[in-house]
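Practice problem: predict the structure.
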Amino acid sequence: GSVIINNRLVIAGGWNGTSLATIEVVAPNTKSETLPISLPVGISSSCILPWDTNTFVIIGGWGGSGNLRRQTHFVNVANNTVTDGPNLLKGRSYFACHTMHVNGEEYIIVAGGSGATKSTEYLPMANYGSGWQKSKNWTVV
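Answer:
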């Protein structure tokens, strides 16, 4: 997955025959750089979103011991730290994620994917310690 942080493209994890744990940054007219930190395990097919100006969150994916991941991680590229976030309710890979504002509050929404085809979960960003919440399951028409 990838995300823009501080006008730089950040690429975390991936696949080259095995799941990758590296985090790389690149910007126009600069040489790409591999950060001195890495993800806790190799992860591919995850979803990544900006959290704040220096931090992104990497959600779910496929990795580690070859399983669907429930784990989330906050990665701060300014101080090179990786912190565990709240676990998803269902492990998933190849899914959609996005932020959404509802009634003045910001949420992360994850939907579908391998392992959770008709499942949607949301995380209130201001109160992420409360964990992921299950939304209504949906039906493909």
